[in-house]
């Protein structure tokens, strides 16, 4: 189990993870209107939140892990003092233009129906949710027995779970889109084509209807 600081240093030292984060942040910032507020759902140590705040977006952060939250409070202490970043004990305590969930936060849920219903009370109409999720079609995972054992589940149900301490679930995009309706519609999926087999993470953009 990583401490907040260990996770923070590990994620910043990984070129692959930095590249994924950079793409995610760029997409989020391109989508956000000037000065729009955002909820960083599962904010980790505050890396994304710090970037949003630096770009003029008031940012609420929700992080249920005490270890992550403690390091976030240290890493983002200046922004927290200036109230450009505000920590919340529940995502339901704010109303924002957008919710972001980076690095497989939503993969910790077995079902997203209740989550999207709750977030529909957080995201204003016309706003969005941007999520980075583990790609169930990533072919490099085919070397693992758990991936091969779940191919049938993926095809039939669009969902499978990996037995582990962290309870990670993998979802086909159509399953997440179905859980998001009728409050959100899937507006964009990245990647498509060959990238579906070669990228570990997929980005899903949901628009509040």
Automatic annotation (TrEMBL):
Superkingdom of this protein's organism: Bacteria
Any one biological process term the GO annotation gives? methylation
- A Pfam family of the record is Methyltransf_23
**Keyword check for Methyltransferase:** yes
Q: Which GO MF terms are attached to this record?
A: methyltransferase activity
Entry keyword annotation includes Transferase: yes
Its keywords, alphabetically, are:
Methyltransferase, Transferase
Per its UniProt record, what SUPFAM superfamilies does this chain match?
S-adenosyl-L-methionine-dependent methyltransferases
- Spell out the protein name for this chain: Methyltransferase domain-containing protein
Organism annotation: Dyella koreensis
């Amino acid at each position: 189990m990583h401490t907040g600081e260990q996770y923070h240093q590990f994620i910043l030292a990984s070129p692959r993870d930095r590249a994924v984060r950079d793409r995610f942040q760029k997409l989020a910032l391109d989508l956000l209107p000037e000065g729009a507020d955002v909820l960083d759902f599962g904010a980790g140590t505050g890396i994304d939140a710090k970037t949003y705040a630096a770009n003029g977006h008031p940012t609420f952060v929700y992080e249920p892990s005490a270890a992550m939250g403690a390091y976030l409070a240290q890493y983002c202490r200046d922004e927290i003092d200036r109230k450009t970043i505000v920590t919340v004990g529940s995502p339901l305590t704010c109303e924002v233009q957008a919710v972001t969930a980076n690095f497989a936060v939503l993969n910790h849920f077995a079902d997203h129906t209740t989550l999207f219903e709750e977030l529909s009370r957080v995201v204003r109409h016309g706003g969005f949710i941007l999520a980075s999720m583990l790609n169930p079609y990533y072919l490099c995972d085919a070397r693992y027995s758990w991936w091969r054992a779940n191919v049938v589940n993926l095809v039939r149900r669009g969902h499978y779970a990996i037995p582990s301490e962290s309870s990670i679930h993998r979802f086909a995009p159509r399953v997440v889109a179905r859980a998001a309706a009728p409050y959100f519609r899937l507006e964009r999926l990245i990647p498509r084509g060959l990238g579906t087999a070669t990228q570990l993470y997929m980005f899903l953009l949901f628009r509040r209807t």
